[in-house]
Write a structure and sequence with these properties.
Elements: H1 3-19, H2 23-27, E1 45-46, H3 49-82, H4 85-103, H5 116-129, E2 142-144, E3 149-151, E4 157-159, H6 174-184, H7 195-202
Antiparallel strand pairs: 1-2, 2-3, 3-4
């Protein structure tokens, strides 16, 4: 086997293992039937129980990636022992790195873009908007914009919480949207300016 062919097999194995555990969260949620209760991307999303449920669904897909990563990891180890070594090493290296990157959130690393804490914050805002003592106005209608949660009636910021990817079909097209999602791993394109929010999110229950 030549150096060129070995390199090609390694890169192929690496890319396959890189994409495989991310595909369920990227593809399954983009279906039309999965988004009937949401406006098209990138429009703001009204805060409803459907949105809270979507955050929990995205959180589930995020952690199911660990289970999916076991498949290319196992095939990589098998290929290292009995098959194409460069291909197997690419599979093993990429899937192993994916698993480590997911597990590092338990050891002080970056937190997932979708957490139980985020879902709880959204639900608290929904409950507050329906109460008599609303935080903004008498006709509170909270929406999740790119940079945070705002009232669509009085434009008051209700939560400094940048919006992560929520599984909608992206307006920038399949290819560019796919590249953007792979590079960001679903994290918001904006950073929060609130130190309290960052601190609380770091303590979120996973």
């Amino acid at each position: 086997m030549t150096l060129l062919s070995s390199t090609i097999y390694f890169v192929l194995g690496f890319l396959l293992a890189y994409l495989f555990p991310r595909m369920p969260g990227i593809l399954i949620t983009r279906g039309k039937g999965f988004n009937v209760n949401f406006p098209p991307h990138p429009e703001s999303i009204p805060l409803t129980p459907y949105l809270t449920q979507r955050v929990l669904h995205m959180r589930m897909f995020y952690w199911l990636g660990l289970v999916a990563a076991i498949i290319p990891l196992a095939f990589g180890l098998i290929s290292l022992r009995w098959g194409n070594v460069p291909f197997g090493f690419g599979l093993w290296l990429s899937s192993g790195w994916f698993i480590l990157s997911r597990l590092q959130s338990f050891m002080g690393g970056p937190k997932p873009p979708w957490t139980l804490d985020v879902a709880e914050r959204l639900q608290i805002i929904i409950n507050d908007s329906k109460s008599d003592d609303s935080a903004c106005c008498n006709f509170s209608s909270p929406e999740w914009l790119l940079t945070g949660v705002y009232c669509s009636v009085c434009s008051k910021e209700l939560e400094n919480m940048p919006r992560p990817d929520l599984g909608r079909k992206r307006s920038d097209g399949f290819f560019m949207g796919f590249i953007r999602l792979l590079s960001s791993d679903g994290h918001p394109m904006f950073e929060s300016n609130s130190k309290n929010y960052d601190t609380d999110l770091g303590q979120a229950e996973e």
